[in-house]
């Protein structure tokens, strides 16, 4: 059983050029993304406490994302890069959230599948970063990250399959993959994860 789908549109070469051109800004954004990913998993626990089948996985995901934040922060500290004073709005996530269904059950499904799609994009982009880096320590770190994000992408689909028929999950996931590609294609390229 396939637990996630591939991305619809690969990142443009200009994206990795922007990241390598201002890697410190990328690190700041990356740290913010890890904090938000942890908070998102915990918000699902808070919003759906009756979904006991997935709470342990959500907690594990939240902890792992927070560990990633800690690791990114250590890299930033070594480079003398500070965290941003406040987390700026992410136009990518904002545009995707607008597309979440408003029905109670459908919203739950969409939140899980959106998690999968965002993690899958992270896999692609962290892999591009790993390939572009020359520093062996940073290369190892970003390889570990894209492997980890792949697990999270699978996990969110697996969670959805606890509650919804397979056909519904995969049809909606395919829709989300398409939406994500269109959103990404419409955004200004910047040294940020999304």
Question: What does this 3D model show about the protein?
Answer:
This protein has 194 residues and is mostly helical. It has a single domain, classed as Up-down Bundle (Ferritin), CATH 1.20.1260. It is built from 7 helices and no strands. Helix 3 runs antiparallel to helix 6. The longest helix has 29 residues. The relative contact order is 0.20. The model has no long low-confidence stretch (mean pLDDT 94).
Spell out the key features of this protein:
mainly alpha; 194 residues; Ferritin; 7 helices; globular
Radius of gyration from the CA trace? 16 Å
The overall pLDDT, averaged over residues, is: 94
Q: How widely separated are the two ends?
A: 28 Å
What is the CATH level 1 assignment?
Answer: Mainly Alpha
Kindly state the percentage of residues in helix: over 70%
Write down the secondary-structure element order: HHHHHHH
What's the overall geometry? globular
Would you tell me the structural class of the helices and strands? mainly alpha
Binned strand content: under 5%
How many separate domains? 1
What is the second-level CATH architecture? Up-down Bundle
**Low-confidence spans: pLDDT under 50, at least 5 residues?**
none
Quantity of strands, as a count? 0
So how many helices? 7
Here the CATH topology equals: Ferritin
Per CATH, the superfamily is: Ferritin, core subunit, four-helix bundle
- Biggest β-sheet description: none
Fold blueprint:
Blueprint: H1 13-21, H2 23-47, H3 55-79, H4 91-97, H5 104-132, H6 136-161, H7 166-186
Helix pairs in contact: 2-3, 3-6, 5-6, 5-7
């Amino acid at each position: 059983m396939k637990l996630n789908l591939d991305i619809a549109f690969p990142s443009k070469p200009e994206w990795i050029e922007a990241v390598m051109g201002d890697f410190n800004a990328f690190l700041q954004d990356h740290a913010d993304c890890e904090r938000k990913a942890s908070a998102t998993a915990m918000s699902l626990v808070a919003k759906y406490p009756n979904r006991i089948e997935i709470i342990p996985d959500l907690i594990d995901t939240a902890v792992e994302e927070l560990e990633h934040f800690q690791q990114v922060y250590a890299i930033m500290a070594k480079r003398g890069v500070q965290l941003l004073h406040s987390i700026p709005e992410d136009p990518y996530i904002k545009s995707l959230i607008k597309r979440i269904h408003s029905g109670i059950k459908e919203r739950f499904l969409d939140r899980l599948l959106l998690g999968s799609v965002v993690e899958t994009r992270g896999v692609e982009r962290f892999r591009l970063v790993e390939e572009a880096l020359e520093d062996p320590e940073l290369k190892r770190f970003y390889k570990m990250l894209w492997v980890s994000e792949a697990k999270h992408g699978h996990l969110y689909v697996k969670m959805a399959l606890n509650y919804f028929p397979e056909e519904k999950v995969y049809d909606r996931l395919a829709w989300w993959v398409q939406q994500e590609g269109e959103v990404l294609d419409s955004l200004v390229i910047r040294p940020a994860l999304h």
